[in-house]
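User:
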Amino acid sequence: MESIEFKRIRAKLEKTQKKIAQLIGTSIKAVHSYEQGWRKIPHHVERQMLFLVFRATHGKTEDVPCWETLNCPEEKRNNCPAWEFKSGDLCWFINGTICSGQAHGNWQEKIAECRKCDLFKDTFQDTNIFSTAGEASKNAKS
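Assistant: Predicted structure:
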């Protein structure tokens, strides 16, 4: 997660740095460092921020579950934790999903694949939190 994405989520949630620090279980100094780009945003913080903005913008959804949208065959569904825990709206949040045919080794690999997925993109399109390639390179220069 880029610092601009972190800032956008905080703005979308309408939370102060202090409130976000409390919600994600870290210090205000850490939040400030994430937003300034001085500190890499840890994977567990990225997951929490995405979860918070998802629930704030979508609530408990009745959306079509991921396995129906992606037309997953029954064998694949039966081995997927999103199916097992009836969390088709949170497939991007749950480790061990097998969208590409196998579970990923870590969160970084998983979220990189999710960011390419149309379902993920559609889920977060109204939040305007994700950096474009141009923004990321511009921010790296400043």
